[in-house]
Amino acid sequence: MRLLNPIALSLCLLSIPAAALAQGAQIAFGNTEQNTDLPVEVTADNLAVNQNDGTAVFTGNVLIGQGEMRLSAPRVLVVYLQDQSGIERLQASGGVTLVSGEDAAEASNADYNIESGLIEMKGDVLLVQGRNALTADKMFVDTKAGTARMSGRVKTVLQPEQDN
Fold first, then answer.
1. Pairing relationship of beta strands 41-43 and 147-151 according to DSSP bridges
2. CA atoms of 62 and 75, how far apart (whole Å)
3. Alpha-carbon span 164 to 162, nearest angstrom
4. CATH for the 20-151 domain, from 3.20.20.150, 2.40.128.90, 2.60.120.10, 2.60.450.10
5. Diameter over CA atoms, the chain
């Protein structure tokens, strides 16, 4: 499921270095480092809680916010810490959009480990940073460092700079 307009993507002028064409590419993600100690706010159309396994499932227009970061998906599984003192991880599925600052990424699924601040996005990953865009099989976002690494058939198109 693609949430970004394909026409807008085709109009992107790409200036990512040739290293991005390799199997893995390290890039910046978001404007600032994410504070994983900030509260996580979740809104959705529906909520089902399972007290037996310490999970909750949010469905329908799920929007998650933490600091400057926003994640949206049709379904998000929330796994709580064993002592129920907080959230261990968020598992989003059904077409995920992650936005931090001016950067936006899409994928089929995402797994966000709250404590480590690491997000793994899998399945038809599309990253748009201003006028730049990359695709890959996977993207690993380190929210604490403000970086991302893409792997698996990383692709971008390098366009010459246009004079106005």
1. unpaired
2. 6
3. 6
4. 2.60.450.10
5. 62
**pLDDT tens-digit profile of 36-83?**
778 889 999 999 999 888 899 999 999 999 888 899 999 999 998 888
141 has which bridge partners? 119, 148
For residue 32, give the amino acid letter: T
SS3 21: helix
CA angle 126, 124, 59 (to 5 degrees): 95
Tell me the CA end-to-end span of the chain in Å, nearest whole number.
Answer: 34
pTM of the model: 0.75
Environment class of 14 (CB within 10 Å of its CB; exposed 0-12, middle 13-18, buried 19+):
middle
C-alpha to C-alpha distance for 76 and 156, rounded to whole angstroms: 29
Domain assignments of the chain as residue spans, ordered by start: 20-151
Is 68 exposed, middle or buried (CB count within 10 Å of its CB: 0-12, 13-18, 19+)?
middle
Query: What are the tens digits of pLDDT across the range 71-90?
Result: 999 999 999 888 888 889 99
Q: How many helices (H) and strands (E) does the chain have?
A: 1, 10
